């Protein structure tokens, strides 16, 4: 399985997954220019996409859907730009060619937000962003994966010292907001196992987080839990930089 996180953050989110003859796209935020250039950069063709999986309807996840609307789109939320939309629900499992997709119910301030577990015959990817907390009912599905793309949106202290209005800070901190670094790390360290190879901390706030803060928090949680996993590549995604897992 090859995974290209094309962009990640409040200005756009998109992830391309390829395995054998199957190509899936998770979300299509950002700009048309950036996404099309990213497809070329990773050697992919838009029209080879077998399914577009949409996590929710916020613009940073769907702003370029009109350029993918001729493809099969799978979504739990309402969408206006999809011509061939397939409705899915949490806990549903779907097979698209060589890959299976498990849809996960998340908690965000956009109706019907979902995450994804994508599996080949040998590998398992967990893709969870845009959730205020990790619901207990999805934890059995997301444990023991090979690869995690997992929200680590903000540092709480840094967020509180931004100039954002209090109502926005409260929204981000709420159960319908975004995972902070500490909660993200606590969840991840309870989910990984010996087969886990890659962790990407995703959807980092440019104002209320840094890559170093997210990575340091993860390392500190490992130390507090006296965990010493070996062979795991832990990275933090940038807003506009392709990050590849293969």
Tertiary shape: globular
Strand order of the largest sheet: 6-5-4-3-2-1-14
Helix content: 10-25%
Largest sheet: 7 strands, mixed
Q: Give the DSSP E fraction (strand runs of 2 or more residues).
A: 25-35%
Span of the ends, CA to CA: 6 Å
User: What ranges have pLDDT less than 50 throughout 5 or more consecutive residues?
Assistant: none
Following the backbone from N to C, one meets helices and strands in this order, namely EEEHEHEEEEEEHEHHHEHEE
Structure description:
- The structure is a single chain.
- With 246 residues, the protein is of the alpha/beta class.
- The chain has helices spanning 32-41, 59-62, 139-142, 156-160, 166-173, 181-191, 211-224; strands at residues 2-7, 14-19, 22-26, 51-54, 72-75, 84-87, 93-96, 99-105, 114-119, 124-128, 147-151, 198-202, 233-236, 243-245.
- A seven-stranded mixed β-sheet has the order 6-5-4-3-2-1-14, with helices on one face. It has a seven-stranded mixed β-sheet with strand order 7-8-9-10-11-12-13, covered by helices on one side.
- The longest helix has 14 residues, at 211-224.
- The chain is globular and about 45 Å long.
- The chain starts with a strand and ends with a strand.
- The mean pLDDT is 97.
């Amino acid at each position: 399985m090859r995974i290209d996180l094309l962009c990640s953050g409040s200005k756009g989110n998109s992830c391309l997954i390829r395995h054998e003859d199957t190509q899936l796209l998770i979300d299509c935020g950002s700009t048309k220019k950036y996404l099309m250039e990213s497809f070329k950069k990773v050697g992919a063709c838009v029209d080879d996409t077998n399914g577009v999986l949409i996590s929710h309807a916020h613009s940073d996840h769907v702003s370029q859907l009109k350029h993918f609307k001729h493809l099969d789109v799978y979504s739990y939320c309402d969408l206006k730009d999809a011509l061939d939309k397939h409705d899915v629900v949490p806990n549903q499992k779907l097979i698209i060619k060589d890959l299976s997709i498990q849809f996960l119910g998340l908690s965000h301030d956009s109706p019907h937000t979902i995450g994804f577990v994508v599996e080949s015959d040998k590998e398992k990817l967990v893709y969870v962003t845009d959730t205020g907390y990790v619901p207990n009912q999805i934890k059995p599905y997301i444990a023991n994966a090979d690869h995690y793309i997992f929200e680590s949106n903000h540092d709480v202290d840094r967020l509180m010292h931004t100039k954002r209005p209090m109502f926005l800070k409260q929204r981000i901190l709420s159960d319908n907001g975004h995972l902070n670094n500490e909660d993200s790390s606590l969840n991840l360290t309870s989910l990984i196992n010996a087969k886990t190879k890659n962790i990407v901390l995703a959807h980092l706030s440019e104002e209320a987080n840094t890559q170093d803060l997210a990575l340091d928090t993860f390392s500190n949680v490992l130390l507090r839990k006296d965990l010493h996993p070996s062979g795991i590549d832990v990275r933090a995604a940038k807003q506009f930089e392709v990050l590849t897992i293969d």
